[in-house]
Amino acid sequence: MAQVTRILHLEDDPADRELVQAQLEEGGIVCQVTWVQSGLTFEATLLADEFDLILADYRLPAYDGLAALRSARETCPEVPFLFVSGTMGEDAAIEGLTAGATDYVLKTRLSRLPPAVRRALEESANRRGRKRAEDELRKLSRAVEQSVSTVVITDPQGSIEYANPRFTATTGYAIEEYLGKHTRLLKSGHTSPEEYQRLWATITSGRQWRGVFRNKKKNGDLYWETATISPIKNDQGVITHFLAVKEDITDLKKAEEARVKLEEQLRHAQKLDALGRLAGGVAHDFNNLLCVIVGCGELMQSRLPASDPNQADLEEVLRAAERATQLSRSLLIFSRREPAKLKPLLINELIEGMKKMVLRLIGEDIETRLQLSSEPLTVLGDYGQLEQVLTNLATNARDAMAGGGVLTLKTDQRVLDADFVQAHGFGSEGPYAVITVADTGVGMDSALLERIFDPFFTTKSVERGTGLGLSIVYGIVQQHQGHIECSSQPGKGTTFTIYLPLVSVDLTQQEKEGAAKGPVPGGHETILLAEDEAAIRGLFRKILEQHGYTVIEAKDGAEAVSTFIEHQGRVDLAVLDAVMPKKSGRVALDEMRAFRPGLKALFVSGYSETAARHPDDGSLLLKKPVRPRELLVRVRELLDSKR
């Protein structure tokens, strides 16, 4: 079905109008003609309707063709306008064409009208097509220019022919710096050559490639971007260009890395929590064993004369038990289940006291050098924990010097100023004791140094290391309000530097008071002893009975209560294990106090948590392993205290 052409015809002569329409129909143009005779009607019709073509006489009463042309160009500039006139001269025709008319046809030559109309309609259709294409192109250009994605077009060899503003915003390269340059100017060396080979093999075969680059900006910063690269082909299917659309995903990568790090930290925290739970359970059984070892050892010492050669062996046994006790406490402190107990101590005396043990620990092929400060360095510290720190560092130094070397232990005093505190991010200004542990071993690179204090990170084999040693060291130093640093280079050894705040305390008088312990206290009162470990129960009974006390035993909490009810008139003090079968020491004491309010009690426990939950009701707590003298002193203290 032929398309109907809508025509607006301005003509005051009805006969001419009929001739024009007949000529159009004879020329094969299917049309729908709207005829108007005056200027007012013409302009009103232009506003009221849409037309594909406008025909107008040049001369009309009170109106003319040029006025009609001006109105048409203002109202519908894209619609073709033809003059059809019998009086239009050459000058008028030129004036009309200059003003925007598409063509003119004289009424004396109306046979020209159909081809002129067809040509005008075709040109109009072409103009509309070009305009649509131009509009689409402008829209596409604006979209690309304003896109938040980077858009790059290269030639088949990879040289950049176009890049949108986002490219400059992302990479820092200005247009004159990248235009005509190969895309390799973004290479950072962090994307493998194999990946680039896969990329070119894919796009040169006519397929699309998607992947991720780690590229380098103009200023040297690295960034991540995901890219989709597609070939552009001409009408013959030949690849003429490549189009890359890329997104900067650096923030997403950082977020992903942060998430992975958090998950890793969570796993570490879960490991530490599991370790803490394990340490708590092991500590109970371990401390029970140590309690028997320490108690029996001291009892044997007290029975032997000072000149007995077995005294030295017993002393070694007790010192080993003390170190085992500190090891148990270090695990509890590491898992944050027991706070450090700090008191004034002299750093130089600590190291001097450890010298013999360190020599045995590191072996004869390693030379040990002590460079101790001439000034006394007093810090608030836990002797056993600091001994654990130095022992651990010495052990690591030994492992780093498999072929022999030199281990240096050095102490010094240093006043830290505001610049040091700000640069290192710890502590406060003032005097510090500085402990340096240096070896001449294999050393470490920067990658290892960054993780040296991470829990469960170790460079040792499974059978030689757990990755907990330096984490424990770090935790202990932190609890002492101190700071530890590590410096090292491959082949040049490793140095650990520990900073501990100095305190002003006169230890001389404290030492005198500590030396004057006096006789071991005893008594004649009756003590209810409840302990589920038979060996410890027997040991405590022996210690108490040897010093005059009467002891009534119970093997658990329930038996303690029933025994107390049976002998409540005789019991002066209850010594209770904090954690026992059937009833805990706390519950047993509460039930006994229902019969005798104010009953005095001494709790004994191998669990560190008990100390934190200990009520402030006048009872005392001893932590296993318990020394005989300590047990006797606390028993006497409670019995002599006022109700």
What does this structure look like?
- The chain is an alpha/beta fold.
- It has 5 domains: 135 residues, Response regulator (Rossmann fold, 3-Layer(aba) Sandwich); 102 residues, Beta-Lactamase, CATH 3.30.450.20; 77 residues, Signal transduction histidine kinase, dimerisation/phosphotransfer (DHp) domain (Helix Hairpins), CATH 1.10.287.130; 164 residues, Heat Shock Protein 90; 121 residues, Rossmann fold (3-Layer(aba) Sandwich), CATH 3.40.50.
- It has 21 helices and 24 strands.
- The chain has a 5-stranded parallel sheet with strand order 2-1-3-6-7, with helices on both faces. A 5-stranded antiparallel sheet has the order 9-8-12-11-10, sandwiched between helices.
- Strand 4 and strand 5 form a beta hairpin.
- The longest helix is centred in the middle third of the chain and has 54 residues.
- What is the terminal separation in angstroms? 119 Å
CATH topology assignment of the largest domain? Heat Shock Protein 90
Question: How many β strands by DSSP?
Answer: 24
Specify Rg, calculated over alpha carbons. 49 Å
- The fraction of residues assigned to DSSP E strands is 15-25%
Strand order, sheet with most strands: 2-1-3-6-7
Mean of residue pLDDT values = 83
Shape: elongated
The appropriate CATH architecture of the largest domain is: 2-Layer Sandwich
**Unreliable residue stretches:** 461-467, 509-516, 609-613
Largest sheet: 5 strands, parallel
Helix content: 40-55%
The CATH class of the largest domain is identified as Alpha Beta
Helix count, per DSSP? 21
What's a quick, concise take on this entry?
The chain is 46% helix and 22% strand. By secondary structure, the chain is an alpha/beta fold. It has 21 helices and 24 strands.
